[in-house]
Amino acid sequence: MSKFTVAPGERVLVQGQCLDMNNTLAYKGTLTVTNQRVQFNPTTLNKALGAGSWELAAVQLERVELAGLKKVLTIVAGPNTIRLMGRDVLILFDRLKSLVREIHGGSGDDAAFNSGECILLQGDVALELNKVISTKGHITITNQRIRFQPKKTLESLLWRGTGLDAPLSSVTSVKLAAIRKRIELVVGGKKRAYFGALIPQLYGMLKVLIQDGSDNLLGNWTATLHRGALAQRGELFATTQRLLFYPTGALDAITGASKEISLSVSRIDSMEVTRIEERLVVTAGQVQHQFTVANPGKRVMAMVPSMIYTPSDEEPEVTTEAFTVDLAVATTLLEPWKSSMIDQPGTLKLCGPAVQLQGGRGTRRGLLFLTSDKVIFGPTTHGNLQSNAVVLNLASLVPLGNDEEPENQLRLTADSMTIKLFPRGEVAFTQLFWKLWAVERERIIQEARLRLRERKRKPSGPQDEYNRRQAFRLLFARPKRAYLHIPQLPKMPEPEVAEVSAENAAPVGGLVERVDDVAVTQDQSADASSAEVNRWRSSHFDLSTLPKKMVIGKTINLSDRGAFVASPVELEEKQEFYLQFDRNFLPGRLLAQVIHVKKTGKTEWRAGVEFLDMEAHHVGKIRQIVMEAQREELRERAEMDVD
Question: Which of 80, 64, 82 is nearest to 21 (CA)?
Fold first, then answer.
């Protein structure tokens, strides 16, 4: 059984440390009680020694007992009898007793807890009776009340009214003296002072509950805040409205470094976990806070819903239905990112706020843009826009088609890149997104097919007025890495031999076949050549829509009309594929056709390829690269001549 995970609709009522006495040896672990079950998980060390986890459904619980000098907790659930003991069995017993009463329809008048009441914090503290005398006891904070149960000591017998059981709403003031670890409360108009090691956690919990309410608390954890070379221990609290850190170190209080940190969710731009030191990094505007905390990835996931549904302070106005941004406003918001894109996006179709989940180790808020040819996610920060926008080619975007994928999420995959987004508009936004995507993708496919049918290649020889192939040609000193995306085309169907007649008589030595209303002449003594097969495939299929196999090759030279490449897989004449370079060298993909090919090694083929349907910006970029290389070569020659 894995570590405890809360199921939908489940609430943790109490957790405590105890010893499982059901074996020859007693194994230490954590007992978790929820409104649906009771589960025991041993520590990692005890699990290695053979201890096992166990779980009981809440409806199986029949009775609980606490007896003996060592306070042994007995749980009876059908044929199962569980015995536990340890430091937290008293509070576990009180909560389990109330749960059993609730399940079996007891009156609950003498129950320690109400239905659905969750224990948030518990431990030993001391109540200050006067400046000299105090009495020890056990304090419990739930989502409904604050309770102090004094131990049976002489002080508690002499002073009446030491106990406390009051609703949280009656707590009107909380003050902390961090150096002495002393807290002053005003409960129901009366002052009460407590001190002890638990006071910093108690102070943080009460402050959070008073400010944000118990229903908005997501969790609290012991953490360390890193400020350069300094580290401060404290408690980290997460609510649906803010992230709070309260230092707990006495030394910090003495030196004056015990400053509380309160970050509104609306100001948080991103949260991520560093890979080396496993620190939780919270970015709010231009300020970063780094924490060391157990299971930092889970802390990020706990804050994701709050970041989705809490608008940023600088977020534009959105509609109430699908939470979309007005396109005129969105066009202005997109401008800062366009300057960093080689391929400028088309007409804007949709925009809305979203949160990106980065592999369970990070999340960041931003705006999702859908244009006529691209999908863009632009992460934002208060005061500045980040330049690292995620750009996906709309034509390559493929929905997963997985019925198990939640409809309120967008998992977008294109060109070997996948991003996961949570739009605030949920299902209404995702449905609108896929509807617009389908329309734009169909338009792109139709335009590509039209270009294939109407494509006319220009001659590139001495007859040209200006031989650009030679003028803008770059021979690499070291071959440049390139990626060949080769479409996986279907096989050419077997020919159907037509009856010979006066109307369809074949030329001498040949037969006429018809495949999809296209006439092909074949020689009887040989099959169709590879070039004929490739021409047939290219004329019948849109390469951009077919699955592709990616191999890594090399580019030996490059011009604005073509290139000379080396491939680890066999290439054929007239074969078409997409050629791609490293993004920092030449972004985008180029459609290329093999003009001539030669096998130069056991697993190497070298081919001259011609670029097809070149976009103007690609031509300009290649010429710029070539001219810069030529200028550099001229400078080097000039320096050699001077020497």
Answer: 82
Whole-angstrom Cα distance, residue 41 to residue 28? 9
Specify whether 385 is located in the same domain as 438. Answer: yes
Dist. CA 506–CA 522, nearest whole Å: 9
H-helix or E-strand containing 49?
Answer: none
CA distance 323 to 630: 52
Give me the pLDDT at residue 186, please.
92
Residue 639 token pair: 């320096």
Which residue type occupies 363? T
Separation CA 638–CA 643 (nearest Å): 9
- Report the number of distinct structural domains present in the chain: 4
Regarding whether 565 and 437 lie in a shared domain, the answer is no
What is the three-class DSSP state of 99? helix
Q: Are residues 476 and 573 in the same domain?
A: yes
622 Cβ contact partners less than 8 Å away, ≥ 6 residues apart: 472, 558, 559, 560, 586
Q: DSSP characters for 576-587?
A: EEEEE--TTTS-
Tokens of 466: 């200006």
| Overall residue count recorded for the chain in this entry | 643
Q: Rounded to 5 degrees, what angle do the CA atoms 7, 11, 15 make?
A: 105
Best CA proximity match to 538, nearest among 505, 569, 576: 576
pLDDT of residue 281: 92
Nearest CA to 64 among 55, 72, 76? 76
Spatial contact of 587 and 580, defined as CB atoms under 8 Å apart: no
End-to-end CA distance of the chain: 76
160-186 CB burial, b ≥16 within 10 A, e <16:
eebebebebeebeebebebeebbbbbe
Q: CA-to-CA distance for 533 and 518, rounded, in angstroms?
A: 13
Residue 543 CA to residue 436 CA, distance in Å, equals 23
Asked if residue 515 is part of any domain, the answer here is yes
Measured CA to CA, the distance from residue 37 to residue 178 in angstroms comes to: 39
3-state secondary structure of 122: strand
Strands (E), 315-435: 348-357, 362-371, 374-381, 384-385, 390-393, 410-414, 417-423
**In degrees rounded to 5, what are phi and psi of residue 382?**
-65, 120
For residues 643 and 634, what is the distance between their CA atoms, to the nearest angstrom? 14
Residues 398 and 476 in one domain: no
Distance from chain centroid for Cα 186: 43
Rounded Cα gap, residues 18 and 89, in angstroms = 7
In what helix (H) or strand (E) does residue 47 lie, and over which residues does it extend? helix 44-48
Domain span at residue 407 reads: 327-453
Q: What is the domain-level CATH number for residue 550?
A: 2.40.10.220
Q: Give the CATH number, domain containing residue 434.
A: 2.30.29.30
How is the beta sheet containing 182-187 ordered, strand by strand? 164-167, 145-150, 134-142, 119-128, 190-195, 182-187, 171-177
Res 396: pLDDT: 82
Q: φ and ψ at 101, to 5 degrees?
A: -60, -40
Determine contact, residues 186/171, Cβ cutoff 8 Å: yes
Which residues of the chain, if any, have pLDDT below 70?
A: 1-4, 106-111, 153-158, 178-180, 250-258, 382-387, 400-405, 452-477, 488-547, 637, 639-643
Helix, strand, coil percentages for the chain (3-state, nearest 5): 25, 40, 35
